[in-house]
Amino acid sequence: MRTIKISSSGLRIAQVAPLYEAVPPRLYGGTERVVSYLTEELVRQGHDVTLFASADSRTTARLSPCCRQATRLDSAVRDPIIHHLLMLEHVRQQRDAFDLIHFHTDYLHMPMFRDRAGRTVTTLHGRLDLPDLQPFYREFDGMPLVSISDHQRAPMPPVRWLRTVHHGIPADLLHPRFAPGGYLAFLGRIAAEKQPDHAIEIAKRAGLPLKIAAKVDKADSQYFRDTVEPLLDHPLVDFIGEIGEDRKSAFLGNAAALLFPINWPEPFGLVMIEAIATGTPVIAYPCGSVPEVIEDGVTGFIADGIDAAVGAVRRLGEIDRRGVRRRFETRFTAARMAADYITLYRRLLDGHEPLVEVDAA
């Protein structure tokens, strides 16, 4: 690999975001939110960052707008992939302006940047257990990849993994509240794999109110109508709908616990670290990244099923909410995430292949 001469201080970095949501999103949106946290922290640490994203994005970096607004919110957009391909062509044309290009666009860019793989990093944010992905990643096995949990890697063929970098959020974004709350919280998206119906059953059996702050995507509307909506007519259940960043501190901080009863290979689960940032413990099923993120008995409980989750609710008094916040500050800040990426960028550009498993704890 050719070694790139880089400054000992700031790097010239391109962050390439998906266009489905603004960076950061107005409401729901995990990947674009993480891209925002990383971008802002890299700027704060003195790096020259260009963000390729939708024009309605907000950043202290140099914004290179690639469509007029988030494609999810633009009724004129029929095929968002077209806009992504145009963005990638713009990145390709400017590629020599950057020491390193960091992609968050899954696999779309790989055919265009294969010949410059050593000056790229791709963070894979989604599930990797879909059969269609296997032949693609075998073909592009030279692209440097970052996983967001160790578990996320499990279904993949041999590829060029650099390391796992767990997500982080700004330390001052969500404010901790240490008095135990009076309700259980469910935050995110209404979908079968998130099992909000289990959250409702857990709350009912535990005898605590449940507040559900979640969006309903078009793809999940039938599941919502058939499975979830009939359960909402209960005095303990309050369906709030989708909420923005400005309401998360209060929503999560005032909760006794966040319920995260997933039944799919969750690659990370940003909402878990949002909860522990407020000092609120998480009760989660042991799927995907959960055992990497939640420390059982410290930042919450890992419960295998409804009965175990109800038991965990009754043990919440054992959790020190100040200790939950301290573990967030140690493990899941944006500053820690950015430092991990800068170490990775420099090793890659210096010609040192990381290929080392790193314990994010």
UniProtKB/TrEMBL annotation:
<dbReference type="InterPro" id="IPR001296">
    <property type="entry name" value="Glyco_trans_1"/>
</dbReference>
<feature type="domain" description="Glycosyltransferase subfamily 4-like N-terminal">
    <location>
        <begin position="28"/>
        <end position="131"/>
    </location>
</feature>
<dbReference type="Pfam" id="PF13439">
    <property type="entry name" value="Glyco_transf_4"/>
</dbReference>
<dbReference type="InterPro" id="IPR028098">
    <property type="entry name" value="Glyco_trans_4-like_N"/>
</dbReference>
<protein>
    <submittedName>
        <fullName>Uncharacterized protein</fullName>
    </submittedName>
</protein>
<feature type="domain" description="Glycosyl transferase family 1">
    <location>
        <begin position="183"/>
        <end position="314"/>
    </location>
</feature>
<dbReference type="Pfam" id="PF00534">
    <property type="entry name" value="Glycos_transf_1"/>
</dbReference>
<dbReference type="GO" id="GO:0016757">
    <property type="term" value="F:glycosyltransferase activity"/>
</dbReference>
